[in-house]
Amino acid sequence: MNVTPPANGPLGRDRRTATLVMACVGVFVAYLPVTGVAASLPAIQAALDASTSQLTWVQSAFILPMAALILTAGVVGSVHGRKRTYVAGMLFSAAGAAVALSAHSVQVLWAGQAVAGLGAATLLPTTLALINDVVPDVRERGRFIGLWATSLLVALAVAPLIAGVVLEHADWRWIYALPVPVALVAAALAVRLLPASAPVPGQRLDWPGQITATLAITTLVYGVIEGGAHSFTEPSVVAALCVAVVTGVAFVLVERRSTSPMLDLALFRSPAFVATTLVALIMFLALIGFFFLLSLYFGLVQQLPTLEAGQRMCVVTVAAIVAGQPVGLLMHRVPARVMITGGLLVVTAALLALTGLEADTSYAGVAWRLALLGVGMGAVVTPMTATAVASVPRPLAGMAAAGSNAFRQVGGALGPAVLGTLLTTRAVAALPGHLADAGVTGATREQVVAAADAGGLGAVAQLRLGAATGPVLGAVGDSFLDGLRTCLLVAAGLTLLAALVSALLLRPGGGTGGARPPAAGGGAGRPEGAERAGVGASGTPTGKGLAHTFEHVASSEA
Questions:
Q1: DSSP 6-38
Q2: Quick one: 476 exposed, middle or buried, by C-beta within 10 A (0-12, 13-18, 19+)?
Q3: Are 117 and 176 contained in the same domain?
Q4: Looking at 219, 235, 257, which one is the last position of a domain?
């Protein structure tokens, strides 16, 4: 069972405060590489002579381990203790940043990103589980989840600025310098400050589920990226997508039969959990893909230094943080369906407004669109996370948090792959026409088109074209904008679909507002009748008791 200090008394309050602070630091470290690396992609591409496909893998190498391993990381926390898992996550984050800091090839950078992604996968469910452990009251917990989500957004906001400052004065590799000491100090503090927790009785690692989930997610993302870079008829791509389908089906079958599943399918009996899971998947596919495209727009089309690009990118997250404050206060007054659906509609409107970007769009012209996007994000992230946790019985809350995060990261991994592929395809197809309009013909035109076909639009910037450089770069910018507008329309369609899912599946009174606080004397929030439902003394369901627990609580709340 979890060993936590009593909530009353100075020691208990101090321990609780320390645990909440460490949880926020953990999610900050986990998300620090996301937008910092995104803002640095043009500099990385120029330094390593990377193609668009290779750049896509720079981000996907980080997000893939998050998506594939986050569910198992949640179980590891239950089996080996939250404190140990938190420290391990910090050490993985520091090690990954150290590897990337020494990278002189894109392949070594991928390796560093992957190790850092493993650290993030370990930290995300662990930090939410720490909050769940020390804040048993559902309504109070929602406020602290809001602080957790704010820490996530702060990381997304400051990382591009840090990267910009670094790139003004040093090599791109130094963008990875900050996470190393921050993660190491946090690990040392966690050893001293976090309360110890014992393994949860009856819970063990689900290796068949882990293996099938990892294979399904990895082969799916690989197939999408490589299919877009080359062809979806390539034998390796076809094989990867077939493996993704087979292992995805195998994962479902394995989890249905497992006595200790890492993702119990009983969770999907909650319409609110299904809704927030789908919203997380769709929204992060659109938004992480958008951040990838936005960094290329600032670097390739507007030719901005990384610091200026970072300042523009942080408008999104600063607006999200500002908007998230009143959202956190209104979560128990306004239904989750209203906030999430409304926020997604604002995001959709912002993405449509961004289709009006031109190569010479001013800072103000970009900023108001990005601020609108941030406001929509701020209205969605906190209630989406809180609803996923509160929409199921408390014994399932940790698994629900891990499941929601897993689908969020799958969307984040697919975002750069799907939208990057769409951008490249549309832009390269439009390039010959824009070259002709710019008066670039003959051998120069053929050379530029060949370079774009082989390495994407970024490869064209490396060509030495003499007097034709200006017209060619103008044509490249126009082609990129054609691809960007297509991607923005697709992203807007995805977020509109997510809004529809939210409106249809989130029931009035459900989610955070409809979740019950633990009954007095209920023993850490266990639902009445938990023991009959197969719940162990720790309050965590064992084996098939997960499904029975859900059925019992669902019927009692009805």
A1: -SSSHHHHHHHHHHHHHHHHHHHHHHHHHHHHH
A2: buried
A3: yes
A4: 257
Give dist(CA 116, CA 94) in Å, integer: 7
Contacts of 227 (CB under 8 A, 6+ apart): 234, 237, 241, 421
Question: Phi, psi (5° rounding) for residue 342?
Answer: -60, -45
Residues 67 and 173 in one domain: yes
CA distance 135 to 371: 33
* Gap between the Cα atoms of 280 and 400, Å rounded: 13
Separation of alpha carbons 521 and 539, rounded Å: 13
pTM: 0.74
Query: For residue 212, which of 23, 72, 86, 337 has the smallest C-alpha distance?
Result: 72
Phi/psi region, residue 507 (left: phi>0; alpha: psi -120 to 50; beta: rest), is: beta
Q: Per the domain annotation, does 450 fall within a domain?
A: no
DSSP class of residue 333 equals T
| Token pair recorded at residue 509 | 């009174």
Q: Identify the weakest region by mean pLDDT among 92-96, 140-144, 290-294, 360-364.
A: 140-144
Q: 513: buried, middle or exposed (CB in 10 Å: 19+, 13-18, 0-12)? A: buried
Q: Which amino acid is at 263?
A: L
DSSP lists the bridge partners of residue 110 as none
Domain that holds residue 367: 10-206+258-431+477-557
Q: 541 pairs with which residues across the strands? A: 535
**Token pair in block for residue 358:** 């031109």
Q: Do 117 and 133 reside in the same domain of the chain?
A: yes
In a domain, 37, yes or no: yes
Closest CA to 408 of 26, 186, 124: 124
Q: Given pLDDT bands bounded at 50, 70 and 90, which one contains residue 533?
A: very low
Residue 42, Cα to own-chain centre: how many angstroms? 21
pLDDT tens per residue across span 219-245: 887 888 778 767 788 899 999 999 999
In 83-158, DSSP assigns E strands to none
SS3 state at 541: strand
The two tokens of residue 301 are: 């089309």
CA gap 328, 313 in Å, rounded: 23
Q: In sequence order, what are the residues at sequence separation of 6 or more whose Cβ sits closer than 8 angstroms to the Cβ of residue 154? A: 28, 317, 321
